[in-house]
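Weekly modeling sync, notes
Attendees: S.R. (lead), two postdocs, one rotation student

Agenda item 3: backlog of single-chain predictions. S.R. asked that every request posted to the team notebook include the full sequence so nobody has to chase files. The rotation student volunteered to paste the first one in as an example of the format we agreed on. Action items at the bottom.

Example entry:
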Amino acid sequence: MPTEVEIVWRHQNESMDQELLQYWQYNAIAVDPAHRDKRLRQLAAVARDSQGSLVGVATMSIVKLPEFNNFFFHYRTSTALAARSGNSQTDYRQRVDTYLYDKVFAYFNQRYDPAAANQPIGLYITVSTPRRLKVMSAAQEPYSGLLFVGYNRRGEQLHVKYFDGARIDRVS
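Predicted structure, as returned to the notebook:
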């Protein structure tokens, strides 16, 4: 488990950008070069080990899902190669990606204003990796609370989790 998760949403930090670019390259995480700068601006949180090295990254973008007629944060996470080993045997709650998810959700859930219009009402994730598809088979995931809501055109699972007090009538 990482020793520290730092929320860095809307950061403007060149040294963090460089660290993230190195992390993506070293861990063979595919980021389309045409979208690299955009993805850097979507950085939401970083997880570090006891030596201060990045072991996980969460990025988010705000999307309006037509099927829901609402805005969500499209949440993505990646885990460093060294932190991935043994993930299938590791307690779900001890994994880097779970730790990041918990911290990010708690941060944005606390800041959510149910009275405000046109803001994200929760997190939206896509699940495409075979390993993750094997473990995410419940309609509502027991630990994360993510709700399965269907598949996209690429066959990826779609899941959402609403912020406390979220309403579906706030889009104008």
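Discussion: group reviewed the output briefly. The mean pLDDT is 86.
Action items: rotation student to repeat for the remaining queue; S.R. to check formatting next week.
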